[in-house]
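SEVERITY: medium
COMPONENT: batch folding queue
REPORTER: lab tech (J.R.)

DESCRIPTION
The queue accepted two submissions in a row. Attaching both inputs and their returned structure tokens so the on-call engineer can compare them side by side.

ATTACHMENT 1
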Amino acid sequence: MTRQVGLMLFFSILSLCMVFGQVSYSIPEEMAKGSLVGNIAQDLGLDVKRLKSGRARIYTGEGTEHYIELKRERGVLLIKDRIDRETLCGQTMQCALHFQMILENPMEFYTVTVEITDINDNPPTFERSEMKYEISESALTGARFILEKAIDNDVGVNGLDSYTLNPSDNFVLKTISRGEGTKHIEMVLQKPLDRETREHFSLILTALDGGEPQLSGTMQITITVLDTNDNAPVCSKPEYTESVKENAAIGTVITTVSATDMDKGNNGKIAYAIPKSAASNLFDIDPESGVLALKGKIDYEKRRVYEIDVQVSDQAGLSDACKVIVEVKDENDNPPSINIMSKSNTVSENMKPGTVLTMLNIHDPDSNENGKVMCILNDNLPFAIKSSSNNFFTIVTDSDLDRERASEYNITVTCSDEGVPSLSSSVTLTLQISDVNDNAPVFERSSYEAYIVENNTPGLSIFTVKATDADWNQNARVSYILEDSSVNGVPVSSYVSVSADSGVIHAVRSFDYEQIKDFHFRVKAQDGGSPPLSSNVTVKIMIRDQNDNPPQVLYPVQTGGSLVAEMVPRSADVGYLVTKVVAVDVDSGQNAWLSYKLQKATDRALFEVGLQNGEIRTIRQVTDKDAVKQRLTVIVEDNGQPSRSATVVVNVAVADSFPEVLSEFTDLTHDKEYNDNLTFYLVLALAVVSFLFITCLVVIISVKIYRWRQSRILYHSNLPVIPYYPPRYSDTLGTGTLPHVYNYEVCRTTDSRKSDCKFGRAGSQNVLIMDPSSTGTMQRIQSEKSILDESDSPLEVRWL
């Protein structure tokens, strides 16, 4: 066995690179079943395991599937059934089986050609065992007699090679080569015949082939010599060429063969006939007129050219022969045939563009434009069909797939030829798209805001975040995670928690609006894919205020050690501003709206409190009958539900001078702690002075100790420093309700021997400060009229 193996990788710019290799083999016909064709795995450079894992198989097409089989376990091609080259290819010189080997996972495509070589297994044969001729004795030397050709089904050197004629005394054999390599034989008269000498001749025509060993076939030729008819019919042309369309109707006239005979009468009467052959079953010639017509169906796809031998003869047996070549014209009578070689029913949505999904074999037996096929897919699909090699097409992904947009496609492949009218065929393929985790969860909102009332119960559900995932099944299962962050240095997980399944956000602790009013954190939504995808969203929690704080009074300050009394002159008119109660509420909103009411008073008819501003004013003229010591109890209420309140006691002295009110405040106790504290600090000062004396210069240390001692004495004096808000002031923002501006500056230094209090211009006011630790000494701070009249003269108060 002769084997020729060729492995060639080729890539085409205009087609997909799907043919990964090509291999060719050459084997003789008539090999026994199971004979080895070739080791295709070795020849293609493939591993046998690859053939098994790729489920290698061969696609041979219709009518040839039973000749060759693939043994995946061994990686070889074997003869499946006896191959008769003559049955498979007829008289075609080149006879080959073309098939494809296909592997999957990944899909690979190889072209295999097995050439079938001829062996000399068919001898030449004649359709008839005997031919009879009646030849006039007057036949001229050189007269030709057409003999039936032998048929040898073998081709090439094994085909028909030569003829011999025995005996060859009167006749010789002449071989005529015509177009397309065909040979015609004629028996030529080389000696005149003499019926009186010999009336009958019996010749043996032997046909020989060129094979080894040489085979032959014989036919007997019987010749009867007739009396004189010395003019044979002569064809008008030796060869006729005509064409006819395939599928032409029976009886269609093709041409008319004409011949002449110089004889007259019955000797000049010509008869036309077609010798028995394959063409005689399809064509018929009128014996008298020579009209050649169809008598059977012709098919371009089966045979494209017919050569018809027409014999013309007279009644004496003289004859001539001519040839009619009938060319069959193709008609578009065959729609394309679509064969699915391999296909994928399911494909992942993350397949890259250009991935092969299906391989198709398209065959149209017509020729030229009628056999050119173009395939298209139905519109609006992310797929394309491309020609990979001759008659093979692949369906590939043309763009990215998205299961969330379409989970199934019905792909209709329509293949049309270019004939007129065009014929087409179609097939529909169903393709399922499997899911890939390519979509992250998406929250319903870009950010969330939620409110919760302070003093809530821990574990309270605040609200729910919701995210959806466009993927399917496990890839669409969303879990919620609280991202790590801190609020005021405290992990956010100590404030809130998130339910992993439902996205419900719970409060972990009870919130206090006065400590934290709002805070931010992020919630991550993560799907169950691999790897998981996630997205996050910002959540803002705002604490709503509850009325859980009562108002706080800033002025007047309530101290246990000293007493502040507001002085009102007896000459005060109606509406005189005594003082102002200043209070704040750490709550917000309407919970911080404050109102002031006079709860108790020594004389309710003398004072009133502003409902909104807390100003205490006289509501009538002060008289001499009014008591010097007035005690007012003011209640401050907020606007919350329920309302909360605070009270403050305001002492008012109705008098024009301090001695008048001295007797009213002498019952206050004296604080004995001052002397004890002074002794302690003196001892401490002496110790410090002693230490500094050793380490520093005496003079510098003495000055520092003296200044420091004076400042310490001032600090521990019995004169209290009382926050005081003058009655006539306005806030810095200009939103106050008092009519005048009152500014003051306090200047104190540790190295100064005095402290100065500087006051700007203001109306005449009196403030009485009583300190229980004093021994009956009352200091009066009074703005003298003469001093106030001088714009640059501050009131200086010194403590000695």
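ATTACHMENT 2
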Amino acid sequence: MGFPLHTSGCTPPLRSTCRTLPLLILLFLLQACKESTTGVIDTWNAAPKLLSFSASPARIDLDSLALLQGGTPDTLSTSVLIQASALTAGTGDVLQVDLVPGDQTSTIAGIWMTPSSNANGTESFSGTLSFSLARSAIGSFFVRGTVVSALGIPSSTELRSISVVRTDRPPVLSDLQVAPDTLVTAPPVPGVYALLQLTVRASDPDGQQDIARVIFYTTKPDGTLSNNGQPFMMYDDGGASGSSIGDTDAVAGDGTYTLAVKLPYGTAPGRYKFEFQAFDRIGAGSNKLTQFITVQ
């Protein structure tokens, strides 16, 4: 013979009430666990909020960098200043900062930054992201910032654009003087030469200090290059390099470049082509000036 099954201490009419009470108690306990003893809801498991994020400068001139770093390096080192603030989700937040190309398909450089201060739940971050770029790497880049909590929960991500440019202006050649324009070959006497005096004016809109060298090539009457195809250097050093190599420059640093060319006995007669050009410290070339000389 069977007996009716009742919840402990509950008569059948109160059965639904007895089943509901444990659920209410459980919900109450869960809610109480979310509150601290001060009644403030615990945000430890919440995502931090990135309030501000900046990266400066927003424009990087690779040619100016190359000038500062000593000429024509293939790879240039630079940095951007990072400043940010965030609403904390608890202690242990860090700011993840990455430099990425415009298509964001790779990461060029990255750092993790800890807060420099924390006041009333607002964290401040400040630091430097250092990186290297090829001198040819012009275009748009992004600095990407995300605050990550101690539990690995990220904030929203902010992007700041960095424009990488090249603004170098090449040197300019002018006032070419070649004397004489017709030479008689030297006699067959040791130490006697036919002398050709060359001067040219070189200027640079970025300053005279940006001029790296002034050169010329000489093409012989048969179409081949003199000096084994290597350029001849001209000088603006007041003659400091010595007359033995043809440095007859009168005034150092005045922008007038000089070279005296000695043509020995046996120099092939005919028409010679002289082509002059200047280069700056970035490697940009000036206009070319051409002069023809006849050797008889």
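NOTES FROM REPORTER
The chain has two domains: 49-165, 172-295.
No errors were logged for either attachment.
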